[in-house]
Write a structure and sequence with these properties.
The chain is of the alpha+beta class and 601 residues long. The protein is built from 14 helices and 35 strands. The strands form 10 sheets. Strands 12, 13, 25, 26, 27, 28, 31, 32 and 34 form a 9-stranded mixed beta sheet that branches. The chain is globular.
């Protein structure tokens, strides 16, 4: 039996069944015309149709059935037998217009057009070189450069390499391409055989990747020095030379031309930012650094509130990210999925022990007493980031309020207990943290996120410069709260915090876990009571703050009891307290392991 998957090929170079006899051919109308989604067809050779069997039936596929005995007479024609239920007749009607376009353009013209674009991109990618002469791109199926253009296909699959020969992860390529308005497909493209063959992944590699936690569609794009997938560019009849050139310019500017800040040493080396334990230099001065603001976010992904002083706990700032919202299907709600969560305002009156919540979608203010269990309805366990949490659930009245606020059924949960703490050894392998039992509520990465006001100011200068250069419009501006920090400091040089390993604010000691990897969430902003999205500031940050696939801005901290006698029950942080970095006080233990929180976004 021969099955041809012509889902994509039919769009530009449909197979000639007189030359390639097949029993079954699969095509996709979505890949042919770009519309409608999810509609395709199975072409069956008449002689092979009798091999297809069904063990079930549904509406439209039977001639007769009797409800209370096991009797059914199926329809005889193959198309009636396999078309279950009501067919998508509205979508099918639109196919007629797609074929009209194809008849106008002709298949041969589309074939030559798309193949020439693919060939152009392949040649340009192979010609790219780093400063040291190393090639930038590895093409898969690049034998196509040696065969006629019309046989080479309209798809370009590849991976990119750094000057030292290590791989750029395909997720990094996809993330940056999205910021440039370019849509790519990445991963294994539902073709595990070709993926393993071209990437050189043995059976043991695939099994060890699975044991390391890698599954389809996750962010583990490089494991043990090998890529787990690739990047794919597809061209269609609507693609243009300008599209292809824009893509090549994007690859050149993002993965070949190094930002001048790296060359000047303005940004710290790749190792020192995400892994502050390596190569720490006592070169920073804390003269003038002070704590500018403190912000607490009681409910994960909802708005926070700022205070002049706030008590500390073993999980960070007291009550910070102690609650979250879970959907009816068990999914944790965040701004990435529900951007309107940023419009939900929170405040805690710590003296009265009341959590107040307001939403533009709800008339009344919700108030929850923290020292009362009248709103509680029991405990349960669930897993987040592969870790076990013990949580307190709330009654229906509170859940209904939040369901109205976010526009979907959800449940409020409060963290009672969590156990997770990871460390990175010198070879960056994951292991249990042995020095400190660092507890975190529902924060994505660490107990604290610290942002420098001067770093934000430098970012705004770059945003202004980029706007004048490209559009001449009003320059965008972001404030520190766009990054959802707990602590904002002021008084030093931009990005001085990158080099800190240990610091002290007032009388409280902290250890830096390295830079915070930023995502699309920082591109959300409020305008006239609505949540809008742009590609800034992440696009600008990507141009000069990218290290080993991460776009870093701000640093992550954990409370460090190793440098004090333990957390006093009255310990708190206060605005105005001076900030000392590792260069300003002695007695640091430079051999402590780095605590690092594994995340899935």
């Amino acid at each position: 039996m021969v099955l041809i998957d012509a889902a994509k090929g039919s769009a530009t170079h449909p197979p000639d069944l007189s030359l390639y006899p097949a029993d079954f051919v699969v095509i996709s109308f979505y890949k042919l015309f770009g519309y409608p989604t999810g509609l395709g067809a199975l072409i069956i050779r008449n002689d092979a149709a009798k091999l297809l069997k069904k063990t079930y039936f549904s509406g439209g596929t039977v001639a007769a059935s009797i409800a209370d005995i096991d009797f059914v007479r199926r329809r005889e024609s193959i198309e009636e037998l396999f078309e279950d239920g009501t067919i998508s007749f509205l979508s099918i009607a639109s196919i007629h217009h797609g074929f009209k376009i194809f008849d106008t353009l002709t298949t041969s013209a589309m074939c030559w057009h798309t193949m020439s674009l693919a060939m152009f991109v392949k040649k340009k990618l192979l010609a790219l070189r780093h400063e040291n002469g190393a090639g930038v791109c590895t093409l898969y199926g690049n034998r196509a450069l040696k065969i006629p253009c019309h046989d080479s296909g309209s798809i370009v699959s590849f991976n990119l390499k750094r000057p030292d020969g290590s791989w750029f992860g395909y997720k990094e390529v996809e993330k940056l391409a999205s910021l440039s308005g370019i849509q790519l497909r990445t991963g294994c493209f539902c073709n595990p055989g070709a993926c393993a063959k071209y990437l050189g992944l043995s059976h043991s590699d695939l099994l060890s990747n699975l044991e390391a936690g890698h599954v389809c569609w996750d962010d583990n794009d490089v494991i043990n020095g090998k890529p787990t997938g690739a990047v794919r560019v597809s061209f269609g009849y609507m693609s243009t030379y300008e599209d292809a050139k824009k893509f090549i310019d994007f690859i050149r500017s993002s993965f070949v031309l190094m930002p001048s800040e790296f060359e000047k040493g303005y940004l710290l080396g790749a190792k020192s930012i995400p892994y502050p334990n390596e190569g720490i230099e006592n070169r920073l001065s804390s003269s003038g650094f002070y704590l500018k603001s403190i912000t607490i976010y009681p409910i994960k992904s909802c708005a926070g509130f700022s205070v002049k002083s706030w008590p500390l706990s073993t999980t960070g700032l007291k009550y910070d990210r102690q609650w979250l919202l879970k959907s009816s299907n068990g999914e944790i709600l965040t701004q990435k999925k529900v951007p309107e969560m940023s419009l939900i305002n929170t405040f805690i009156n710590i003296n009265q022990q009341i959590l107040s919540v307001e939403s533009p979608c709800c008339k009344g203010k919700l108030q929850i007493k923290l020292d009362s269990d009248s709103h509680l309805r029991g405990k349960e366990e669930f897993y987040l980031h592969n870790q076990r949490y013990e949580v307190q659930c709330y009654e229906n009245e509170i859940n209904q309020w939040f369901s109205k606020a976010v526009g979907q059924p959800c449940t409020l949960m409060q963290c009672c207990h969590s156990q997770y703490c990871f460390s990175l050894s010198k070879n960056k392998s994951m292991g249990m943290c042995r020095d400190v039992d660092s507890r975190v509520n529902f924060a994505n990465e660490a107990q604290f996120l610290l942002i420098s006001e001067e770093s934000v100011s430098d970012l705004n200068n770059r945003l202004c410069s980029n706007t004048r250069k490209h559009s001449g419009g009003a320059p965008p501006s972001v404030n520190p709260m766009r990054f959802r920090p707990n602590l904002v400091i002021s008084g030093g040089e931009p990005y001085a915090e990158d080099g800190w390993r240990n610091l002290k604010i007032g009388n409280t000691f902290f250890t830096s876990l390295g830079g915070c990897n930023r995502c699309q969430m920082i591109n959300f902003y409020h305008q006239t009571g609505q949540v809008k999205k742009t590609n800034e500031p992440l696009a600008t940050l990507a141009s000069y703050r990218r290290v080993k696939g991460k776009i870093l801005f701000g640093i992550l901290l954990k409370y460090d009891p190793g440098n004090s006698d333990g957390l006093d029950t009255n310990s708190c942080l206060q605005v105005g307290e001076e900030v000392y970095s590792n260069s300003d006080w002695k007695g640091m233990d430079t051999e402590k392991p780095i605590c690092y929180r594994r995340i899935h976004v």
